[in-house]
TrEMBL record:
Residues 1-85 form the ILEI/PANDER domain. The gene is Fam3c. Keywords: Disulfide bond, Lectin, Secreted, Signal. The keyword Disulfide bond applies. InterPro entries: FAM3 (IPR039220), ILEI/PANDER_dom (IPR039477). This is FAM3C protein. It is found in: Secreted. Belongs to the FAM3 family. Transmembrane segments: none annotated.
Length: 94
């Protein structure tokens, strides 16, 4: 599950969910690439969010401020709040 909000107004911009067990990672990667600077990004997984994640997807999420995405494994649960253009790691990740 992923949601984008405006970093200036907090207004919701877009929300989607992706199947990282049996689905294709390509639409998820394209969605991540569409994020504009200044956008707040909220992500959450349940059961398995890592099976289909490849290096490109993990890199794009890390660029949003995630430090845990490189270690996310099979059946790990994960929540994250970051943003496009963030220069430091996110303090909101578990």
């Amino acid at each position: 599950n992923i949601s984008f909000s405006s970093g200036k107004t907090g207004e919701p911009l877009d929300t989607k969910f992706f199947d990282m067990w049996g689905g294709d990672v390509a639409p998820f990667i394209e969605f991540l690439k569409s994020i504009q600077d200044g956008t707040i990004v909220l992500m959450g997984t349940y059961d398995d969010g890592a099976t289909k994640l490849n290096e490109e997807a993990r890199k794009l999420i890390a660029e949003l401020g995630s430090t845990s995405i490189t270690n996310l494994g099979f059946r790990d649960n994960w929540v994250f709040c970051g943003g496009k253009g963030v220069k430091t790691k996110s303090p909101f990740e578990q």
